[in-house]
Design goal:
Helix content is 43%, strand content 16%. By secondary structure, the protein is an alpha/beta fold. β1, α1 and β2 form a beta-alpha-beta unit. α1 packs parallel to α9 and α8 crosses α9 (275-304). The two termini are 30 Å apart.
Amino acid sequence: MPDYGHDLTFGTFITPTNAAPAKVVELAKTTEAAGLDLATFQDHPYQAGFLDTWTLLSYVAAQTERISLSANVINLPLRPPAVLARAAASLDLLSGGRFELGLGAGAFWDAIAAMGGPRRTAGESITALSEGIDIIRGLWDTSTRERLVVDGTFYQVDGAKRGPAPAHDIQIWLGALKPRMLRLIGRKADGWLPSLAYIKELSDLTASNTTIDEAAIAAGRTPGDVRRLLNIGGAFSTQRSDRLLAGPPEQWAEQLSDLTLEYGFSSYILSGDDAQAMMILGQEVAPAVRELVRAERGADETDATPAVGL
C-alpha cells in the first residue's frame, strides 16, 4: 500500500498496574522526557490489578505538559458513550487539547457482565460501537442547536444537550482486525489501531488497508482521513537479526520506515514498561525513521515532478 503521508508520531503503551502507581506515572513522564508524542494505557475496568484508566489519564495529564494521552483502548461497554463524550471533551479542555479517544467494542464478556455490563455477540458489539461513535460525535458538535437524537439498538439519547466542545478535534481510533470492524473504521473513525503481535503476516495489512480505504471512499471520505497506528513490541540489541524489531536502533528505524512507506503506518506505540527502551525509541529510533521517510517522500515528489521544458 502507498504511504498516506501523515506526520510520524511515536508513543508508549504503559501497563496501568496499581501495585506501583508512582512508577506508572513516572513512565508517562519518561515518555515526555524521551521526546515521544503519546502515552497510552489499556482499559480493563474489570481487572482488579489495574488502576482505573480514566482516573489515570486525568492524573497523568496534570503531571505532563506536552504529550498527548489516550486509552489503548477504552472499554465502551463499561463506559456509556454520552458520559464518555463529556469526560473526553472535559479532559481535552483541561489538558490543552492533548487527549485522543482510542475506543474498543469490548471483549472478555464474562468479566464485563460480572461488572454489571452487557454481554454482546461480536456483531452486536460492532453495532453498539457504531451507535456510540454517533452519540460521542453528536455531543461534541456544538455548531448546531438541534436536539441530539440517536435511537440505536443498544444506545439511545433523546434530546441530550450538546457540549462541551473539546479543545481540538479529538481523533477516534479503533482497535480492530476483522472486516466488519475495518469497514466501520473506514466509515466513521479517524484512526486504525491494531497490535503487531496479533498480525499473522505483514501481507495481511495490505488487505486490511484495502478494506478500510474502500469503506472510506464509499462513505464519501478519502483513505487519508484514517491514520494508521500500530502497537509494537520488540527488543533492542547490538546485533542485527532477520526478525522484525529485534536488533539495534538503526534496524528498528529501517523496519519502521518500511512499515510507513509500504503499509501506511505513521504512529508507532511501544508496548512495555522499559524506561530505557522508551528513551532509545524517542532519541534514536524516531529521529532516524523520520529522516528515512522524509528522504523517500522527497524522492517520490522529485520523481513525480516533470523536468522544466518537457
